Amino acid sequence: MKPSVILYKALPDDLQKRLEEHFTVTRVKNLSPETVAQHADAFASAEGLLGSSEKVDAALLEKMPKLRATSTVSVGYDNFDVDALNARNILLMHTPHALTETVADTLMALVLSTARRVVEVAERVKAGEWSKSIGPDWFGVDVHGKTLGIVGMGRIGLALAQRAHFGFNMPILYNARRHHSEAVE
């Protein structure tokens, strides 16, 4: 018999299929007391818990006496009562690097689109304001060689700094709780 898992966050179909190859999966929409009560047997027998953005606290863990591991499909684990998990020897996993590059790409896109006024210009084009050529008020500003300030130099801040510095020759200023030698390099 396969171990049972509660899944409280939709996964891509291919990952869902892989999960179901190894586990008996009970999908629920959330971890509310009503949902837990509706699926009481599944929660009582579950050895795994997988999802994100829902509170996992001591009250929930009381309903899951066989739980051995839980994982969030996100970076942060603020929704988990780590002390309650530790007291029950339940393993907590998270995905700290999963979105670093994606978020850094998005941030760099926002820097570029803000500097070049992409959204504003797109609206003007839709309004029919682009007839022959555009004037300087449409250009925005270059980012190449401009200084970029970053608040927080964690994984995402460092990835953004690398894109800006190596891709656009931007000097980087940052504020963080500690010195980051890799950011200086």
UniProtKB/TrEMBL annotation:
Is Oxidoreductase set as a keyword in this record?
Answer: yes
Q: Record's InterPro entries?
A: D-isomer_2-hydroxyacid_DH (IPR050223), D-isomer_2_OHA_DH_cat_dom (IPR006139), NAD(P)-bd_dom_sf (IPR036291)
Q: Which keywords describe this protein according to UniProt?
A: Oxidoreductase
Q: Which Pfam families match?
A: 2-Hacid_dh (PF00389)
Q: Which GO terms describe its cellular component?
A: cytosol
Q: Which GO terms describe its molecular function?
A: glyoxylate reductase (NADPH) activity; hydroxypyruvate reductase [NAD(P)H] activity; NAD binding
Q: Which domain of life is it from?
A: Bacteria
Ranges for domain D-isomer specific 2-hydroxyacid dehydrogenase catalytic come to 5-126
What is the recorded name of this protein?
Answer: NAD(P)-dependent oxidoreductase
Q: Which organism is it from?
A: Enterobacter cloacae
